[in-house]
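Sanity check. The docking grid for phosphoenolpyruvate depends on where the pocket ends up, so I'm generating a full predicted complex first rather than guessing from homology. Inputs follow.
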Amino acid sequence: PPGEDLNWTLEKADAQEVVISAPAHPDGSIVVRRTFRLAGDYLISLDQTVENRSGAPFALPAYALAGGVGAPVHLRKDEETYVGTGWFTTDLSYTTHKLPEFLPSSFLFLFPQQGKDKVASREVRAEPTVVQARSLVVGGGRVGVIAGPCSVESRDQIVETARAVRDAGATGLRGGAFKPRTSPYSFQGLKERGLELLAEAREATGLAIVTEVVAPEDVALVGRYADVLQVGARNMQNYRLLEAVGRTRLPVLLKRGPAATVEELLLAAEYILDGGNHAVMLCERGIRTFESHTRFTLPLATVPWLQARTHLPVVVDPSHGTGHAALVEPMAAASVAAGADGLIVEVHPDPAKAASDGAQTLDVAGFRRMMEVCRRVAAAVGREIG
Ligand code: PEP
Ligand code: MN
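Predicted complex below; grid placement will be based on this.
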């Protein structure tokens, strides 16, 4: 193929993986290695690393970095190594691109970019993705519990809540510092001061901080404090924001828009994955229907439906999903029964005085009871909570 003049050797070829490598510098100090992952006869992903053993800065021809695939390859400088990832189709319309017995480098040019498969898909990755941030583990049989107030209000409020929810078994602390409010006249959050207080609460408890970022220009700031970036329901289709969090390497909690289909949720997740950030949790937080006895309608069938299609973990928010504190415990338990990989729940020492979402917020005793019930349900369905 044009420009492809590296001298490849085959390092490994089995049913799952083909690895080829080539010196990209005459003295062998720079080595390009490509790992092709296979599913049956189909190429589903390509990872490329460029190892620089020379210790000196180096340049490579574009084709060597891009893998010569005609697909965009994401490059990330990782110490001495450039790591690139390209994704390819498993779509049946590409059956003409079956793998030959042995993979010559020219084969790389056969895959058209338009056939790019969905990275979130189970077909691309069969094993579940487990997202981890400090104490918080979501997926792979562990049900992570993120609890805390809707908004960070004061040092006492957030530190007291953090201690209480940790003692009850939560592994992540939620709290909004930048709040997306329906009315511009409602409390908008403490902003950077709120982030500082979250960091203090983390210091005091070790809990992972989950907090919302509402705008692409705030990602750097929020990322300095957060362990997990939350993209709120209102922003699920803010594609510039999704791209911005996709450029970070912080886990992301992506909430479903109240009027978005699950397909749209999965495609929103693709924006983050496509940036090379693979630590994405999907969150069902209720949708808008004709029904008005609850704030939103919480469809729990989403959980197994998504899990059958994506390897990404699925978290449920029974607080926003119902809007009523009395409904949170039963719907949290139902979520665990349905197989949810995580819960995000609003808890406040004095919900009646909460600056936002008090009606759907549990007090500490209520959260403790919720955890007891969820622990029993988790055991019944073969999972571990916390
Ligand atoms: C929140 O978690 O406080 C929040 C604003 O949630 P959502 O984006 O789901 O409305
Ligand atoms: Mn809220």
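Relevant for the grid: The first strand starts at residue 9 and ends at 13.
Also worth noting: Confidence is low (pLDDT under 50) at residues 60-115.
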